[in-house]
Amino acid sequence: MDIFWANRLVLSVAALVLTAAGVATAVAQTTTASIPTIDPATTFSVTLPVQDPGVIDFENVDGPRQGAGIELSDQYAASHGVRFGRGASVHFCARVFDDVNASLCSYPQAASGRRAAAHDVRSGGPAMVMDFSKSVSLVMMRINPTGGAEGEAFVAELRGFDASGAQRAQADIRFNWSKDAFTWPTSVALESGRAQLSQVTVLLRRVAQNNQPVRFLIDDLSLQYATENAVSPVAAAIAEQKGPPRATDTQVVQSEGVGAAQAALRVYPAAVRKRTVIDWDGVELALGTQKDMALAATPYSGERFVAAAELPLLLPASAEPGSTVIVGNRDSYNAYFKVGDVAYSLYGSRLLTVIAKNDDAPGVNDTVTFAGTEQALTASFAVYGAAYALTRHCADESVTADPTCHDRDALAMIAGDLVVVVGDAGRARP
Fold first, then answer.
1. What does residue 348 show for φ and ψ, rounded to 5 degrees?
2. How far apart are CA 198 and CA 225, in angstroms?
3. I need a labelling partner for 29 at 20 to 30 A (CA). Which of 67, 189, 290, 351 fits?
4. What is the pTM (predicted TM-score) of this model?
5. How far apart are the C-alpha atoms of 204 and 281, rounded to whole Å?
6. C-alpha distances out from residue 177 to 50, 114, 145, 153, 219, Å
């Protein structure tokens, strides 16, 4: 809980401590770069999805021979926007093999047609790599090991990465091989939601042999292009934010649980804390849009905090399963989650710390601002009448060890993945 209050105080200083004129106090920075705003035209634009590329069945592949197969690389780059890494090849499947047709396709038939693609771990590394020039959100395929014992267990591991190299999706599918495997009974899929995948890797492991990577076959590769620059209604609302939140005239009575915050505020003798006015109509509109877009927050723990919150909570839609944890009270919350191997925290509050009483309803900056430290990068913004701070934490708590930690575009992509969640107390529009 100490981390919760510490982060809360950071935001109070960074975005919520205001002068009577309504100017936010900036957080101390270790970086010397200027603090830009996110350009809504480039970061939060929305376009329609491109056309479905169709299924790749590997039937009409030409190229140099690799052993008895045809090396697979960029044959589908123009038509489907996909390039295959080293170790991939296309093979002819038949009931009888001779010296010419001997191949890794050890089955009498492919999943469809007469050819299938293979990946040989000895020549291309443990995983098949597919790079996409047109981002995808769904990858499906038939998969088979090149051989095995009846009933033997295999695990297919699929991983999806965005343009920055961050892992945005994963799927682990366990299946049993049998003597009837030539019927290609196993289909695997990797779905990323709204995340745009620029690379997908496929790895097959043999469970009985210490999860050793093995060579395998795929066929009927199906892709779905991602919607370009698609954003949640939350991201669109952030981009359209005009002016700061409004505060009520009623002074907030703080509970004993915020003693640390009270002590920090004693340096401002005239400071009072006021609740902001939430735009519940805007929140309801966002909830309806999310439903139409089939958007939902990644399952989280901390349901009782969500139920008691009297402000809209912003939560990730594509976090790692089981990684989102929420703590808070009626006026503020902290959410901790991971996207790939990167840790994030998100603080939201409907409290304003006002230095002096003023009828002009002071508030925070009306644009997204960035603040960088040695340990993190934070984007602060106001939306729906509350203030939020999204923080990307550096690996090993050091930007020196994690040079991508201060990538503002990457943090903006995470902001574009946020959705609104409202608990029982919030639905009462307090």
1. -130, 145
2. 10
3. 351
4. 0.56
5. 49
6. 37, 21, 8, 6, 16
Q: Which two tokens stand for residue 373?
A: 């430290």
CA distance 368 to 15: 11
Euclidean distance between CA atoms 393 and 410, whole angstroms = 12
- What angle (nearest 5°) sits at the alpha carbon of residue 51, between those of residues 48 and 55? 145
How do residues 297-317 score in pLDDT, each as one tens digit? 999 999 999 999 999 999 998
The answer to whether 340 and 309 are in contact (CB under 8 A) is no
**Rg of the chain taking only CA atoms, in angstroms:** 26
pLDDT tens-digit series, residues 131-178: 999 889 899 999 999 988 888 999 999 999 988 888 888 899 999 988
Confidence category of residue 24, pLDDT binned at 50, 70, 90: very low
Instruction: Name the nearest CA neighbour of 51 among 258, 225, 276.
Output: 225
- DSSP string over 72-105: -SSTTHHHHSEEE-TTEEEEE--SS--TTT--S-
Residue type, 104: L
Measure the CA–CA gap between 401 and 376, rounded to whole angstroms: 12
Distance CA 106, CA 228 (A): 40
Q: 130-155: buried (b, 16+ CB within 10 Å) or exposed (e) per residue?
A: bbbebbbbbbbbbbbbbebeeebebe
Is residue 144 within 8 A of residue 186, CB to CB? The reply is yes
Virtual torsion, Cα 421, 424, 429, 430, nearest 10 deg? -120
- Amino acid (one-letter) located at 171: A
**Two tokens at 238?**
């952030």
Q: Are 321 and 337 in contact (CB under 8 A)?
A: no
Give me the amino acid identity at 263: A
Backbone angles phi, psi at 396, to 5 degrees: 55, 20
Q: What share of the chain is helix, strand, coil (3-state, %, to 5)?
A: 20, 35, 45
DSSP 240-280: H--SPPPEEEEEP---GGGHHHHHHHTTSTT-EEEEEPP-H
Q: Any idea which residue has 């106090």 for tokens?
A: 25
Flag whether pLDDT at 97 surpasses 70.
no
Q: What is the DSSP letter of 209?
A: G
Q: Which residue has the higher pLDDT, 195 or 24?
A: 195
Alpha carbon separation from 179 to 92, 183, 242, 420 (Å, rounded) = 20, 9, 65, 49
